Write a sequence for this structure.
DNA sequence: CTTGACTCCGTAGCACGGTACGGAGTATAT
DNA sequence: ATATACTCCGTACCGTGCTACGGAGTCAAG
């Protein structure tokens, strides 16, 4: 099992070098051992961990939540239910966000439909609707 | 037409005093005249401007975009079409965001469905899916 | 006239997730 | 041997939209 330099680990994890160091500062990946000259030596495991983080982000989890998920993973006391609960919170948040965006979309498309797209701004129904 | 202190204008605009000063720094509202002792004296107009900003935000516009909309409003060279164009960009962005969220939602609900919600984390399908 | 609410200013901080800088030392390929 | 690429560290900065602080001065009501 050979270890990886930060650059290689970053490439394999799909992030930048600075992001690796950022994750370390944030406690998302453990501090790796160092070479004699101070270079970080990452085990393969850290690469999967970085990918875990990225995948969780794609599902909408914040880094704070990712930290929790990671701590669940580490603790044998944690149950599947804890994870599902977090996922449920995520879901609700996603639903809320979708709803907000739909509202915006409806309002905006109504305004856009009212706007012919010609004439001066002084008669623009879009701006008009916002003015008052 | 009497002028308003920052506190009154803020209340009427539905924002905080600090927000008024922030908007001024950001060039979103004009610098008002001052009293002898340095107090800002806002015309009613500024209140509508603040409300304009708030409404545009509700439609998903960033403050940067709001600045553009405001400059359209000010310039007689700008046309309704410019505004509609910005609104179109907003729409596309909203659609993209909704799509992203839907993707997350789909993925997440699939994972949640696979998870019974009991047992140890070591067998949690949600975490499993993220690990690799 | 006093009290309390308001205002002034500049600067700093928050959350979020990174990104960049710069000067030094180290590793690697040729 | 040398050129090039990589790594180290601390700190500062990005964008987004505010929010907070603190000490001093001012205004309005009673």
């Amino acid at each position: 099992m050979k270890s990886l330099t930060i650059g290689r680990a970053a490439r394999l994890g799909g992030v930048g070098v600075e992001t690796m160091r950022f994750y370390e500062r944030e406690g998302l990946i453990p501090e790796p051992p160092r070479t004699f000259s101070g270079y970080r030596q990452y085990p393969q495991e850290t690469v999967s961990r970085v990918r875990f983080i990225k995948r969780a982000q794609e599902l909408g989890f914040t880094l704070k939540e990712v930290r929790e998920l990671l701590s669940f993973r580490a603790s044998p006391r944690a149950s599947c239910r804890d994870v599902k609960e977090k996922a449920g919170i995520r879901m609700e948040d996603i639903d809320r966000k979708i709803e907000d965006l739909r509202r915006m979309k409806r309002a905006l498309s109504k305004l856009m439909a009212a706007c012919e797209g010609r004439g001066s701004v002084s008669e623009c129904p879009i701006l008009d609707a916002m003015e008052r």
In short: Residues 5, 15-16, 18-19, 22, 26, 35, 37-39, 57, 62-64 of chain B lie near DNA strand D (CB under 10 Å from a C1'). Chain B has a mean pLDDT of 94.
